[in-house]
Design a protein that fits this description.
Length: 321
């Protein structure tokens, strides 16, 4: 394994901060393909950082015992926003900017904008395929899923099906995506998958293990990693578009109390939870499944206001190719 700082910078008190990349090179002079894993763009999303640890540990062992398995290259960027990670914050500290909204336009010369640009350039020169790991905010818990912007789906779905996520969700294009890392990589013809899993500031080992198996399978299916024993086969994900997703929202301010578990099939009318009035002891809203389907988002934060999302159910599947 090679370890390299793609960027380093100085803090005002003189400490050096490095953004690290771990590389597993190919035994071939011309690698089959080059895959990169990125985590920690948002410093409070820890699932991907843990996943990079699992991948690095596994690949180090494999490289020691079966170097011939590496037909392609793997690059791991485990902590892209190190100072935000150090304090568990989403945004780049001091500037308070979102590192995943700094690309594709005029973003000035601030330190985070320079580093976002350097990361994009490094990925473009290092990888044909990128997987960028994210988690949800404090409010929601999400099953492992891949989010794809409509228009890139024909190139991305054939890769996404190998990743062992429960769901692949194709969204219509929106200007809000245009400054993200994933969008700009796809625009530059580097195929980038955006994984969303769990909730921020927490780890879910079941989800991380599913994604770990999925990433090994992606490396195997793309010919990058061909070990003596192939990884276990993975399930095909559900494919949905927004019209096939039922969003449940709170109609009141109060406390949401969940009465169900995420990552399961629910039937129309099943109780998912309730919104209660903590002050006078009343029941404000019984939350039931509006349709039969797969429960893939569930509220984690109990405080709700009118319109707060409570759950999402995938109610139909589609053939997107
Ligand atoms: Zn994120």
């Amino acid at each position: 394994m090679e370890r390299q700082a793609i960027v380093s910078y100085q803090t005002p008190s003189g400490q050096t901060v490095k953004i690290i990349k771990h590389s597993f090179l190919s035994i071939r002079r011309w690698p089959v393909k080059r895959v990169a894993f990125v985590a920690g763009l948002h410093g409070n999303e820890l699932e991907g950082i843990y996943l990079c640890h699992l991948l690095t540990r596994h690949l180090r062992g494999l490289q020691a015992s079966q170097p011939e398995a590496f037909k392609g290259e793997v690059h791991i960027y485990p902590a892209i926003n190190p100072q935000a990670i150090a304090t568990g914050n989403r945004l780049w500290p001091f500037f308070s900017v979102d590192m995943n909204r700094l690309l594709g336009g005029e973003n000035g010369k601030s330190l985070p904008a320079q580093i976002a640009g350097a990361l994009l350039d490094d990925l473009k020169s290092s990888a044909n395929i990128v997987v960028d790991f994210h988690a949800s905010n404090l409010h929601l818990n999400e099953v492992p899923q891949i989010r794809i912007i409509d228009g890139f789906h024909k190139k991305l779905i054939p890769l996404a099906v190998h990743c062992n996520t429960d769901l692949v969700w194709v969204h219509p294009p929106s200007p809000v995506f245009e400054s993200t890392l994933g969008y700009n990589l796809n625009r530059a013809k580097v195929r980038a998958l955006i994984v969303e899993s769990g909730t921020c500031l927490r780890l879910n080992c079941d989800f991380a293990n599913s994604l770990f198996n999925g990433m090994l399978n992606l490396l195997y299916q793309t010919g990058v990693l061909v070990p003596a024993e192939p990884p276990p086969p993975v399930e095909h994900p559900l494919m949905v578009q927004p019209s096939q997703v039922a969003l449940l929202q709170s109609a009141h301010a109060g406390l949401f109390v969940g009465h169900t578990k995420l990552r399961q099939h629910v039937r129309k009318g099943d109780t998912l939870g309730e919104v209660i009035d903590p002050a006078d002891g009343g029941l404000l809203q019984k939350v039931t499944a509006p349709e039969t389907g797969f429960l893939f988002t569930l509220r984690e934060h109990p405080l709700v206001y009118p319109g707060s999302p409570l759950a999402r159910i995938a109610i139909k599947e589609t053939d997107l190719l």
